[in-house]
Amino acid sequence: MAPLFNILSFLVSAETTTQSVLAVPTTENFAHSSCHPSAFSFPTIPGAELINISASSVLHYTKTSLLPGTEATKSYTIDFCNITITYKHTSHNESINVSIWAPKPDDWNRRILALGGGGYAATFDHLYQTAAAGKGFVAIGTDSGHPSGMTSAFDTSWALDADGNSNTHLTEDWGFRTLGEMSVIGKHIVEEYYNRLPDYAYFTGCSGGGRQGLVLAQRYPKAFDGILAAAPAINLETFIPAAYWPTQVMRELKVYPAPCEIEAFTVAAIQQCDALDGDEDGTISMPESCHFEASRLIGKELSCDGEQRRFTKEAAMSVR
Q1: 3-state DSSP call for residue 131?
Q2: Which stretch is the leader sequence (predicted)?
Q3: Of 222, 254, 280, 294, whose CA is between 20 and 30 Å from 21?
Q4: Model-level pTM?
Q5: What gap in Å lies between CA 123 and CA 130, rounded to an integer?
Q6: Is 301:315 a contact under the CB 8 Å cutoff?
Q7: What does the pLDDT look like over 129-168, one tens digit per residue?
Q8: d(Cα 69, Cα 310) in Å, to the nearest integer?
């Protein structure tokens, strides 16, 4: 796997409902004649079957975009070949879309950048792909067979079948299977379009996309030369219940502490545990070594919304 700094240097220096991953507003004829469905094929993937290939040229596409795990947005105007590979797994009624935005040959940096999604959405579509293509990468993503985009990040309806039972196959598609397939399909299409394989292939994702990055490293270690997995949302069996816990406690107690009191607990925890890693930077980098007890603050004074209050038992129970 290529050193992580290779990924970072190229990311920095190279300055919604199931919609086709991939819809963009305006298409025109590309000067490069190979941007046509007939120029592409489906690679050999055991247990997978092609449904459709679409390809169209896009000129002067303008969108404000950013990369996963970053906050700085920028407007990009790009020309690219917009390719969508739609396929399914044998004996399963599904439609999986892999989106590939391929810059014009003269604009390509000879690298692939695969982009993760967030929450339960496997890709955020143009939100990330625009920036990646704007920096010269072939930008790829998969919807894993269910709704994509930020508006679908918390949609879990796809995880149940028509009878209300768990759709195990589609959940596995989202969990791992389509991630490895995305790499195979992306490299295959790149070779057909540019008549050569990429020099390097990278993956980057944040939160749910960070989870995807770790899955790729564990299950498909040869799929990418570098993986940037930011803020990975993992250990879902404890992570998800933990996110709902404070709200549930408040409902049971029928008490809803002021946000400023909850924030004061956070500040106190950071003050206690920030320096555990030897660097006081406002971040708890070693949570496993942080043994903050919210109950110790009960009854102590705090400044909250411009007035003096005391930490309450109910608030301590909500944040513990």
Answers
A1: helix
A2: 1-23
A3: 222
A4: 0.81
A5: 13
A6: no
A7: 999 999 999 999 999 999 999 999 999 999 999 999 999 9
A8: 37
CB 40 within 8 Å of CB 53: yes
- In terms of Cα–Cα distance, which of 122, 117, 114, 116 is closest to 140? 114
User: Containing H/E element for 266?
Assistant: helix 259-273
Of the candidates 256, 258, 183, which has an alpha carbon nearest to the alpha carbon of residue 217? 183
Other Cβ atoms within 10 Å of 252 Cβ, number: 10
| Partners of residue 80 on adjacent β-strands | 58, 103
d(CA 152, CA 51): 23
Distance of CA 31 to the CA centre of its chain: 32
SS (H, E, C) 97-120: EEEEEEECHHHCCCEEEEECCECC
| Sequence letter at residue 70 | T
Edge to edge, the sheet with strand 226-230 lists 48-65, 74-89, 96-103, 138-142, 111-115, 200-206, 226-230
